[in-house]
Amino acid sequence: MSKHISSLAPSVVVDTAAARVAVSQLIGRISLRARGDLAAVGNAIGVALPTKIGTCAKADGIEVACLGPDEWTLLVSLNQIEKVEDALAALYPSLPHSMTEVTGREVTFTIEGPQAVDLLSIATPRDIASIKVGEARRTLFDGATVVLWRDAETSFRMDVWNSFAPFLATTLETGAKELAAELA
Amino acid sequence: MSKYRLRGRGRVDSSKPVVFTFDGKPYTGLKGDTVASALLAHGVHLMGRSFKYHRPRGAIAAGSEEPNALIGTRRGPGRFEPNTRATVQEIWEGLETTSQNKFPSLKWDVGAVNDAAYMMFSAGFYYKTFMWPRSFWDKVYEPFIRAAAGLGVSPTEEDPDTYASRYSYCDLLIVGAGPAGIAAAREAAGKGLSVILVDENPEMGGTLLSEPQSKINGKAAWNWLEDELAALQAAGVKLMTRTTAIGYYHENLIALVEKLTDHLPTLPEDTPRERMWRVRAKQVVLAQGALEKPMVFHGNDRPGVMLAGSAQTFLNRYGVKVGNTPAVVTSHDSAWYAAFDLQDAGAFVQAIIDTRAQVRQDLQDEARARGIPVKLSHTVTATGGRLRVNNVRVNPVSGGTNVGAGQWIKCDALLMSGGWTPSLHLFSHTKGSLTWDDDLTTFLPKDTPEDCVITGASRGLWGVEAALRDGAARVGEALAKLGIGSSASEYSVEDDRTGSGVMMRELPTDRSPGKAKAFVDFQNDVTAKDLRLAVREGMRSIEHVKRYTTNGMATDQGKMSNINGLNIAADALGKKQPQVGLTTFRPPYTPTTFGAFAGYHRGEHFEVVRKTQIDAWAEEHGAVYEPVGQWRRARYFPKAGETMDQAVTRECAATRASVGIFDASTLGKIEVVGPDAAEFINRMYTNPFLKLAPGKCRYGLLLGDDGFIRDDGVIARVEEDRFHVTTTTGGAARVLNMMEDYLQTEWPDLNVWLTSTTEQWSTVALNGPNAAKLLAPFVEGIELTEEAFPHMSCVNCTVAGYPARLWRVSFTGEIGFEVNVPAPYGRDLWEKLWEAGQQYDITPYGTETMHVLRAEKGYIIVGQDTDGTVTPADAGMDWAVGKKKADFVGMRGLARPDLVAPNRKQLVGLLTEDNSWLEEGAQIVFDPKQPIPMKMVGHVTSSYNQGTTGRPIALALVEGGHSKMGETVYIPMPDRTIAAKITGTVFFDPENSRLKI
Which of A52, B582, B618, B974 is 20–30 Å from B740 (CA)? Predict the structure, then answer.
């Protein structure tokens, strides 16, 4: 229980032949809620909002995942947050919406390696195979709500509220070792 | 090599001897043996004692259905497990096993006195014997029953093993890798589907492992098996052995338990002992096969009496003859083949005793050709031998019931077969319906609501060819639903052993059936006589018969006993079996460890633990934690040698004297944004919010529809359309859900959105007369003066270089601030304040001090001073309810007659007359001299003696308390009655003079 995890101190949680898990550096995050003229939102932030839940879009310095019928998560570099926020603020009078910065809320684990999918399946009830490369899902991992981004067949990012991170890191570490032992 | 082992026969490895111990005595088996097969190879049949009568017992079966041969297994400290089936446990070098339910030894057991007194222990004996006298229950009967009951000995040490879990999705899951399952897998393989084939045994093949004589499509059975499995593997079918499908749940969710290490001599690192798979399969094929039925006759439980099919398994799979001079008793053709196999392997079969008058001529011819005496229309009426069968009493039967004179036949094993019962366990878990088949005298599967098909022997088919063809055909239905066409492969099998039989109840006997020890449920020691007694005593439904007799309630879940029990009960009732019914099969299919269910969730990983970003600092500074919801929070920070009371007293005093620092990050936070944000908050909370100006905070009270207090917190209007709502730590998720519920179902017209920001912010609270002085130098953008930043203000500014939401609020009655910075910076902010605070003797405090200081001010804690039945008025918080509001959640509830009735329990302060501390939860009475039971008029909700008022204080809910100021109430305790005076709830600085900077 002495594991402490902070986005300010990226570190490797576990690295085995099966999978490598690391804590990522802090990145800008915005939770966006909106309905109506979504094209206007897309124009403001510079990337069209994907509208199918689970799909993502990417443009220069910004990555968007649609997590609900009126909900998106925006990932931007730290020095771009203000720019995006200003653009959305300018849109607010004509298209009221909710833009809430949640940069500090989450910790991101990168999970990669030949058995990354198996590692996720030890504690995710969802079918990992149903997440296509380039998509994201809000789901559960070991009892905590997470957002899983699939960057490649065997490469994922897992966003989780920071207070859950130490607990999940333990699960990931146990699992990566278990899977490696199975390979041996 | 022992005289019962046939070298080179079976699937064990003759070149790899393995030494293990049973009850301390070393035995040599072969790699591939189970404990049972290895012991049988040494002629050891006695493996345990039954649990009620302590009768000597041996293995009756060869697989997971075994009810008798339960042993303890041990692998060093902590790794002892009782009730392992000797027929399943594979041996490895050094394995220690012990028999159970014996004292002082397996061969001479004093508990067997129960056996002699068996007439006393008939069905329902618990209910009858132990009812009277009542006073004997606690001291005599219950301890006796508890000591006598139960199987084996519970482990006493902590389990050092680890357990794992895995979720899996597949197109097709096939349960059971016998001929039907393998044929099904073969049809599905190579069609681009994800297919999983599981089997509980260490190797796949099912019945083929026990019947190597057949030729499938021209190939010897075992060669065919090897080729098929290799082909399946090559086609990408996931083959899982030692994996039991324990339960079939809704929507084709199947739980599998995979045993990973129980068969290994050394435990590999980082490898769990078992893994629970939760498989969601689009289609399922159940090919669980059939289980052989014992025959019911006096002495059918003697070691050496076993199922004929199991004897065949021991012979063909393990190369072990269960006896050199066995006899066979049967009502089914299959046992004849067991006799032939044993005879051909060098045993001398003493007789085949068949209850039927007519048996296939070819079987009779084969028996004669081998010189095996055949006795048709015969029954077995007794067995002899102390710890192992050594003879069997055989009588002719005519006209079905006329039993002639008995004749004893010597034998060293008695093989029985009462026919076969399709294994419908998982099918029944699906809520599948069954249909009674008169010809087979068994239930067969009918309909199931799940996407599954059932095939092979588990739907009553018999023979390898029938199973193969059926597996290939039935999987076609599943494949069709997956959109895949298929045409079932053809199979032809030579030397297939098909056959049929008749159903028997108890075998006819010339002796008193009332004295027969003819066992139906071997593990629970239920006899045919018990079942008939249950019917005589009024049990009509099989469910009642089951509970009265415990038939089928043992750990084998009636795999051996259910159908025999049903047949006997139906006969006793004079009804047909389906009218008496079949008891429900429930998961798990076989006994399952708790570890498999717990998975990773044990020890420190038992449950989710949430930690703030400041938690590590608290840990480094010796905090003692308490769980609050899923969070662990610092409760207090003891200095060397301090008790909790001393630490909390010090923390309270230091905060009031100078400044205390507190991690409030766990408070729930919800960002409410949109043009209708104010309207939404105004409707949710009792307090008026429409006119709250940006930059201001207000306390908010949240009710349920019923008008009772649900949550509270401070709400800041950050901007015109943006509120920062706080909730209690434990209530965060609940409140957000409640708000979303109202927003989506009641007020979808409101243009507002909710975002959880609990974890966006680290919240550092500073409280005390020096709080402003300490904080001011860190703050840019606002002056911390009474004028510029009065109590209940909020501002977006910079604190210690970090963007912050700074609030001036107080939960202690002191000057107070809450600094919210993005979560990762919380620790750094805390350390900077800590360092600068040294000049003010800054003191970190925990939740306990927070509780004391707020109680001194009469601030409630929802869930401690309220319990879901407290209204704002009860809590003395009418001031928080907006009188001019048109509506808010709970407004209508508050008008209910019982909520406005006088004399409700109301929150008051209590000061004890003798300055003693009251126990939280203690009940309160008005008149301590009234007769018992006294009328209780309330209880103590909060009580502290570590505060700064120089005396213990308490809050309590007391009937009509608000109109009883100054009156005395009484708190009866076990040793004395404490008197206390009712006061207001504010014990400290009632003028709020200390809030001013």
Answer: A52
Render pLDDT for B564-600 as a digit per residue (tens, 0 to 9). 999 999 999 999 998 988 778 899 999 999 999 999 9
Query: E strands within B741-878?
Result: 753-756, 761-767, 779-780, 793-799, 802-808, 816-822, 843-844
Contacts 24+ apart (CB under 8 A), B787-794: B791/B995, B791/B996, B792/B696, B792/B697, B792/B698, B792/B714, B793/B695, B793/B696, B793/B697, B794/B695, B794/B696, B794/B697, B794/B716, B794/B717, B794/B718, B794/B724
**Beta strands per DSSP E along B126-225:** 163-175, 195-198, 215-216, 219-220
Asked whether the beta carbons of residue A100 and residue B168 sit closer than 8 angstroms, the reply is no
- Domains parsed from chain A with CATH numbers: 11-26+105-183 (3.30.1360.120), 28-103 (3.30.70.1520)
Q: Are strands B219-220 and B238-240 parallel, antiparallel or unpaired?
A: unpaired
- Most A CBs within 10 A among B612, B753, B761, hence the mutation to make, goes to B753
The answer to whether residues B505 and B331 touch, using CB atoms and an 8 Å cutoff, is: no
Nearest to B755 among A98, A123, A125 (CB): A98
Q: What stretch of H or E contains B542?
A: helix B542-549
Q: How many other C-beta atoms are found inside a 10 Å radius of the C-beta of residue B365?
A: 10
- Gap between the Cα atoms of B958 and B660, Å rounded: 33
Closest CA to B912 of B997, B854, B973, B833: B973
Tokens of B935: 């009328």
> Which ipTM value was assigned to this complex?
0.97
pLDDT per position as a tens digit, B358-377:
999 999 999 999 999 999 99
What is the pTM assigned to this prediction?
0.93
Strand extents, DSSP E, B674-788: 696-703, 709-719, 722-727, 753-756, 761-767, 779-780
Measured between beta carbons, the chain B residues lying within 8 angstroms of A121 are 166-168
B219 bridge partner residues? B216
CA distance B715 to B669: 9
Nearest chain A CA: its distance from B720 CA (Å): 12
